[in-house]
Design goal:
Blueprint lengths: L4 H12 L9 H13 L3 E4 L5 E7 L4 E7 L10 E3 L2 E3 L7 H13 L5 E8 L8 H9 L5 E5 L6 E6 L1 E10 L12 H16 L12 E9 L3 E10 L5 H11 L4 E8 L2 E2 L5 H12 L5 E5 L4 H6 L6 E4 L13 E3 H17 L3 H10 L1
Parallel strand pairs: 3-6, 3-7, 7-15, 8-14
Antiparallel strand pairs: 1-2, 2-6, 4-5, 5-16, 8-13, 9-11, 9-12, 10-11
Helix pairs in contact: 1-3, 3-9, 5-6, 7-9
Length: about 350
C-alpha cells in the first residue's frame, strides 16, 4: 500500500480515537498491528504489550524506530480544525510514532531491517516497555526515539531521574505536643532535598538538578511524600541519598526508580541523518537537550549505538488540554524521517571505513 498524505493523516486520527492511557494500551496495540500489516510490516504484540513491526529487505543495518503507545489521562476531543489535528497523544507521542510507521513503510529502497516499535508504560516510572525491548532485542545499528522535538528539531539528550518515597509513622499524640509529627517530618524531607541540591538547582537548565514534590499524603501519625529529582549528566545520586538519610533519622527513604542522564554529540550518525532530512525539507535544524526524561535514557544505559530523538509536534503541548499537532508539520516529519532512514542505510559501511582510518 502506498502511504499517501491522506493515509498518513488517517492513521494518526485513528490512533487518537483509541484511548491508551498507561496500563491500558492493548486496544491501540491491536489497531496498530492491523494497520502495520496492511502497510507491509510483519507485526505482533510481545509479552508485555509492545507492538513490534518489522520490514526486512536483505542484508544491511538494523534501524530501530521506537515510540510509545501510552498517554497521560485526560480526554481531548479528536477533531481537525484550521490545519490542526486535536487529540490526547497528538504530540506526546502518537504523532511521532505514526510518522515513524509511515516513513518506514515508504522506505522501499532501504536494505536491511527496519524495526518500528510502540512501547507501553513510557509515562510511568518503570518504563516497562522499553526495559523489555532492551532485554529481549539485539542491539540495533542505530536508534531513533519518537518524541516531540518539532519537525525541524533534534534532541541530543535528556536529564536523568531519581524517584524517591519517604515514609514515616509516629505515635498518636496531641497536636500541641512538641514531639515531631509525621506531617512535619514529611515536610522536612522536602526541605532537606531542596537544601541539599542548593540554590542553583532548577528545571530550567540541563546541567543542574531540579526537584519536584510529586505528592504528599500526611497527618499527625503517618506520612508519605513522593519526591523526584531530574538529574544532569554525572550526577552523584548515592551522595545525595546518603546526605538525605543523614538528615532524616526517622522514617524510611526508598528509591522507586533511577535512570541516568544521556547525551550524544552533534557528529552522531543518527543526529546527522536527521539534520540532513531537515535540510532536505528546507528547514533550519535546531539541536536541543531536554530537562525531562524519555525512553532514550532507558535504552542508552545498555546500548552504545548512534541514537537521537525526533518527532513532529510542539512539546509545550505535552499533556495539555489543547494538545494538537499541525498537520503540515506532521507530514514534514514523515519526510524528514524518510530521508534519515535513507541516510542510515549505509551506516555499517561508513562506520567500518571510519574505524579503518
Amino acid at each position: 500500500m502506498t502511504v499517501t498524505d491522506t493515509h498518513a493523516i488517517g492513521l494518526l486520527a485513528q490512533m487518537l480515537r483509541v484511548a491508551s492511557t498507561s496500563y491500558q494500551e492493548r486496544a491501540l496495540a491491536d489497531v496498530l498491528v492491523t494497520a502495520m500489516r496492511d502497510l507491509g510490516f510483519e507485526a505482533h504484540i510481545d509479552g508485555v504489550g509492545n507492538v513490534i513491526g518489522l520490514i526486512e529487505r536483505g542484508p544491511g543495518p538494523t534501524l530501530m524506530l521506537l515510540g510509545h503507545l501510552d498517554t497521560v489521562p485526560g480526554h481531548v476531543p479528536v477533531r481537525s480544525e484550521d490545519g490542526r489535528l486535536y487529540g490526547r497523544g497528538a504530540v506526546d507521542a502518537k504523532g511521532p510514532l505514526a510518522a515513524m510507521i509511515c516513513a518506514a513503510a515508504r522506505a522501499t529502497d532501504f536494505h536491511g531491517r527496519l524495526l518500528v516499535i510502540g512501547v507501553v508504560e513510557e509515562e510511568t516510572p518503570g518504563s516497562r516497555g522499553a526495559m523489555a525491548i532492551r532485554a529481549t532485542h539485539d542491539r540495533p545499528d542505530a536508534l531513533i526515539i519518537g518524541e516531540p522535538s518539532g519537525w525541524s528539531g533534534v534532541v541530543l539528550g535528556y536529564k536523568g531521574k531519581l524517584d524517591l518515597r519517604y515514609t514515616v509513622r509516629c505515635p498518636a499524640t496531641h497536636p500541641s505536643n512538641p514531639a515531631p509529627k509525621a506531617s512535619e517530618l514529611a515536610v522536612t524531607a522536602w526541605t532537606a532535598l531542596v537544601d541539599l541540591l542548593g540554590p542553583e538547582a532548577g528545571h530550567e537548565f540541563f546541567d543542574r538538578p531540579g526537584a519536584t514534590l510529586v505528592s504528599l499524603n500526611a497527618d499527625l501519625t503517618s506520612a508519605t511524600a513522593d519526591l523526584s529529582v531530574r538529574t544532569p549528566p554525572d550526577f552523584d545520586s548515592d551522595r545525595l541519598l546518603r546526605a538525605m538519610r543523614d538528615r532524616l533519622p526517622e522514617g524510611t527513604l526508598h528509591v522507586l526508580n533511577e535512570v541516568a542522564a544521556c547525551r550524544v554529540g552533534r557528529a552522531n550518525p543518527a543526529v546527522r541523518a536527521l539534520v540532513s532530512g531537515i535540510r532536505r525539507v528546507h528547514g533550519r535544524p535546531r539541536l536541543v537537550v531536554k530537562t525531562a526524561t524519555s525512553d532514550m535514557n532507558t535504552l542508552a544505559e545498555v546500548w552504545d549505538v548512534p541514537m537521537a530523538t525526533y518527532g513532529p509536534g510542539d512539546s509545550r503541548l505535552d499533556h495539555a488540554d489543547t494538545e494538537h499537532i499541525i498537520l503540515s508539520d506532521y507530514l514534514r516529519g514523515i519526510d524528514v524521517l524518510s530521508v534519515a532512514i535513507e541516510e542510515l542505510a549505509d551506516l555499517r559501511s561508513r562506520l567500518a571505513e571510519r574505524s579503518a582510518r
